[in-house]
Amino acid sequence: MGNEESGMNYRDNTYPFRQDSTFLYYFGLDVAGLAAVIDPESGAEILFGNELTMDQIIWTGPLPSLREMAAAAGITTVEPFDALPGWLKKAGALHTVHYLPPYRELNQMRLAEWFGIPVAQVPDKVSVPLIEAVVRQRAIKEAIEATAIEEAVSISVDMHHAAMKHVKPGMKEHELAAKVLEVAHAAGGRLSYNVICTIEGQVLHNHYYGNTIRNGDLVLLDAGAEQVMHYAGDLTRTFPAGGKFTNQQREVYDVVLNSLERAAGQLHPGKRFIDIHALACEALLQGLKEIGLFMGDPAEGVQEGAHTLFFQCGLGHMMGLDVHDMEDLGEQYVGYSPQLAKRKDFGWKYLRLGRELEAGYVLTVEPGIYIIPELIDRWKAENKLAGMINYPLLEKYRHFTGIRIENNYLITATGSRLFGKPLATTAAEVEAMVQTRY
Amino acid sequence: MGNEESGMNYRDNTYPFRQDSTFLYYFGLDVAGLAAVIDPESGAEILFGNELTMDQIIWTGPLPSLREMAAAAGITTVEPFDALPGWLKKAGALHTVHYLPPYRELNQMRLAEWFGIPVAQVPDKVSVPLIEAVVRQRAIKEAIEATAIEEAVSISVDMHHAAMKHVKPGMKEHELAAKVLEVAHAAGGRLSYNVICTIEGQVLHNHYYGNTIRNGDLVLLDAGAEQVMHYAGDLTRTFPAGGKFTNQQREVYDVVLNSLERAAGQLHPGKRFIDIHALACEALLQGLKEIGLFMGDPAEGVQEGAHTLFFQCGLGHMMGLDVHDMEDLGEQYVGYSPQLAKRKDFGWKYLRLGRELEAGYVLTVEPGIYIIPELIDRWKAENKLAGMINYPLLEKYRHFTGIRIENNYLITATGSRLFGKPLATTAAEVEAMVQTRY
């Protein structure tokens, strides 16, 4: 199933069109109103969609015909969209037709109608063999894909440098986010996800841009471009609005950066990402121990979940045509394996990738330290891990906010390769970039 | 029904949230996951939605509770979202419950489930009395709404001036569109619709930004901001990329501008907009006659539809919380009346607003001239209106592209008021602005 246009506040005022990523991967056709069938027995590929009418061409201008677009994608058979239900019926209905999980309601409604099943049952009847086959192909990036992702990452680098140079105390967050947006679009792409651009980096799901940025604030920018083929970049930097970290900020920054570097050093085919996550968490606790916020043995702290007070989420995820690659297909299939199920405890349950790495995987590494007052209060009230957490000292960090540093890597035969042109990363590099005002 | 988050390439990678406009109008609550009931008999207003859990607050940071938000909107009763179907059942089901047309599939699926009807029947059972009542209220803008719209229009003016100053031959369309986007977001808003930013202004539905802008090209920019309360602006200007119109471009520009000015001069309560549209079309033909492209009597030309070769769409539409205000409720109810049905012939059928104007209406006036080669070829092949159209001369305009000029007006007790801060409008003003490069 391809995607359709998606109405915003009425049907014809649409969000920017986004094709389904698996449809893009197999068919490359970036227009609405399509679906396609691959018949592995006969080898046939059929594209279902409607040609523009003469009346439509008045409004759209001359465009290549669907048949021409299909041919360019190597598909010779094109049928009208309305022929699809009949084709499915002829194919013998559900037991021989495999479909992927629909995440848009229109496709869910259509599948229900075509297969004559209740809408609510559509997700239950998705094809696990098809999901697994698609994941196997999409997880390993070909050279042309790696090049596309690197392009997206390099645009993302430009977005971050533009923000660092543009930030000025007194500015609103949305003024900074707007600059980031401009760079992505000026490069011919768009955002691969809604920008996080905030002085409250500890708020992990933050799409509010109304705060005024003040001298002394840390700005957390999590922003990535989607390039023209729709491959994604996904980078985070945290920088001091005034151009200089405080000592407290700098100490924590270096803890996060050390964790990133230790994790990145472990990227290698055959390594389980869940183990790299654990190592990154251990590195965070080791650093926090040196600051005095953590007491005890870091490895034991990770066992006990002490790190989840500071680092509640996962170390990284797959990247590709989706910024969380193939998340619609199910995290168990994408990030885990029959031998490795996702853990369900706090912290670990947000780790989207755990499985053994293979050459060709593309992923993020993104450790962070987030001081969430509500979480501290909850743990304190439960006296949780009181022997490991220095709660009195932590009070001095209550309004610290959050720091995350995120890079994107390709797993190679011999280790990994950092994607994108150079981006300010060390505290000194970041400070220098912020001080390079426009 | 409020709106939910809308997944882009998977469920959790959402488009920027956009609340339903009617929900915003009555309840002002700009968050997902809500629906509300107004019971005109008892006077009760009930908001259905779920409070954040403690787990969610870890990710979102502390937010006002739903109860607090509801109270700020004057609603005292808040129920969990899941209580809504039961409430509807108790209320006596469909014959006493009125709902508006759903334009998002999820809401359509929910209404089907709650009322126990097939999804396909949901649109048939919308409440016309409720639609009419909502249109009556929303069509007449209160002072606070007019202020909000004027703010959106003034941001839109900044977007246009930024584009005029930013354009440089050699630039890609998306580089210019990116600047427009930045200005909208830097002002704390966003776009009220996808920007049209093109050197092919004759392509009316144009969201392609891949052309290189060259000296001599006309750039048509149709772009408006949505301000923070979600009221829309909607402006169009057409400007010469090189800073100077050619004589041919300037002649046609002045024809369009004259049509705009004549139409704007007619805006007055009691005037039918369909008649103003006809007058604007007549002005276009009068101007084209002076150039030599039209032959004959302009009023007769409009009768015969000769103007639709050059101006295929409508003169304007209502504006408010939606850029095409209330388009989801149905154009017949919004733009027409029981006494005035929408015409179905080419050109006229795209006129969204025909009815008698009332003080408090906000609308666009947007005449244009679009030279569409495919349409000319079709008319020529049919020898259509050959006595009125100077086809040989028109060949010299085949690659002229298109010009539109669009302003936004409030209908007042005594006439109309142009919205927004001053925007370059005459050919000389536009040229001067483009020549004021950054």
From TrEMBL, chains A, B:
Signal peptide: none annotated. Pfam families: AMP_N, Peptidase_M24. SMART domains: AMP_N. GO terms for biological process: proteolysis. Keywords: Aminopeptidase, Hydrolase, Manganese, Metal-binding, Protease. It catalyses: Release of any N-terminal amino acid, including proline, that is linked to proline, even from a dipeptide or tripeptide. The keyword Nucleotide-binding does not apply. It is an enzyme of class 3 (hydrolase). Its EC number is 3.4.11.9. One of its GO terms (molecular function) is metalloaminopeptidase activity. InterPro entries: Aminopep_P_N, Creatin/AminoP/Spt16_N, Creatinase/aminopeptidase-like, Pept_M24, X-Pro_dipept-like. Gene3D superfamilies: Creatinase/methionine aminopeptidase superfamily (3.90.230.10), Creatinase/prolidase N-terminal domain (3.40.350.10). SUPFAM superfamilies: Creatinase/aminopeptidase (SSF55920), Creatinase/prolidase N-terminal domain (SSF53092). GO terms for cellular component: cytosol. Belongs to the peptidase M24B family. This is Xaa-Pro aminopeptidase. It comes from Flavihumibacter petaseus NBRC 106054. The lineage of its organism: Bacteria, Pseudomonadati, Bacteroidota, Chitinophagia, Chitinophagales.
